[in-house]
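thought: user wants a sequence for this fold. calling inverse folding tool.
action: design(structure=
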């Protein structure tokens, strides 16, 4: 049996409009209940929002927070390698390829301490990998001057063919470009890596200079390779990915723009001159290339 709502207390002058006021109050109370229910539903949905199912940044979640794992139907497998799976191991290198070989023999029996005879069984091989202390190779070219007794001027010696004119060699320039291009390291992090790990005096501005050198050096091989490629477009991770295949390697070009502006900009770049095209390609896209033939020489 439903309980009737309480009678609303009204002043005597509002009694003629009682039916209208009670109907209005009832409508507002119903609307308030609907909004409260909607607020509770939205609050429950908001509590379930995480950076994995929304556009929230990952910094809004505690670093130790773990998602609830969904139980999969079927038989539960134990962690680690399963019985009968293919074995994966790090193969030992030949003894001739080791830097040092230290043969070890037991001194006494591990049970009674008695003397031991040399066994004929092969030894258990144990190999340890180390990193050598990195010391940069520094080549100096003293350019001497000679005085001409005939005209009185001095002439300075020139660098030999193939010697870099700057303070960085081809391998250092290629390694710096690899850090900044393929491994996506910033200029300051690349500079810190060169100084802290390779013991090379550096600065962020010097790193940028090497980056510009590498970009200019690969512009010509890039254009030659692009003429022999087969292009294939697909969408991946919200970005337009151009994957082109070539018998000598693979070439990938990733656009930073998700819309059509990247294609329109690339079309305008194709209509420009050769040098402008290379600059536009290197400026508007980040390219990673693998080729059987590397860059033979660097103009450093």
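)
observation: tool returned 300 residues.
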């Amino acid at each position: 049996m439903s309980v009737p709502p309480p009678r609303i207390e009204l002043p005597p002058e509002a009694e003629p409009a009682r039916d209208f006021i009670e109907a209005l109050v009832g409508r507002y109370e119903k609307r308030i209940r609907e909004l409260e229910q909607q607020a509770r539903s939205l609050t429950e949905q908001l509590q379930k929002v995480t950076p994995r199912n929304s556009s929230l940044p990952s910094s809004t979640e505690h670093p130790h927070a773990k998602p609830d794992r969904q139980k999969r139907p079927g038989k539960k497998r134990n962690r680690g390698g399963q019985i009968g799976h293919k074995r994966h191991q790090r193969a030992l290198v030949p003894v001739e390829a080791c830097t040092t070989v230290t043969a070890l023999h037991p001194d006494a029996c591990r049970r009674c301490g008695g003397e031991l005879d040399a066994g004929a069984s092969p030894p258990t091989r144990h190999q340890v990998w180390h990193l050598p202390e990195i010391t940069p190779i520094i080549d100096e070219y003293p350019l001497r001057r000679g005085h001409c007794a005939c005209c009185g001027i001095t002439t300075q010696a020139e660098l030999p063919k193939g010697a870099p004119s700057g303070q960085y060699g081809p391998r250092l320039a290629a390694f710096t470009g690899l850090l900044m291009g393929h491994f996506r390291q910033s200029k300051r992090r690349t500079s810190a890596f060169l100084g802290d790990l390779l013991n090379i005096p550096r600065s962020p501005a010097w790193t940028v200079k090497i980056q510009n050198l590498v970009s200019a050096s690969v512009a010509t091989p890039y254009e030659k390779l692009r003429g022999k490629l087969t292009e294939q477009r697909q969408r991946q991770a919200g970005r337009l990915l151009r994957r082109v295949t070539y018998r000598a390697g693979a070439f990938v070009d990733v656009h930073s723009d998700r819309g059509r502006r990247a294609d329109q900009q690339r079309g305008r770049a194709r209509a420009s001159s050769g040098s402008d095209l290379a600059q536009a390609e290197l400026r508007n896209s980040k390219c990673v290339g693998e080729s059987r033939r590397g860059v033979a020489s660097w103009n450093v």
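thought: summarizing for user.
answer: Here is the designed sequence. Confidence is low (pLDDT under 50) at residues 232-241, 243-252, 254-258, 269-300.
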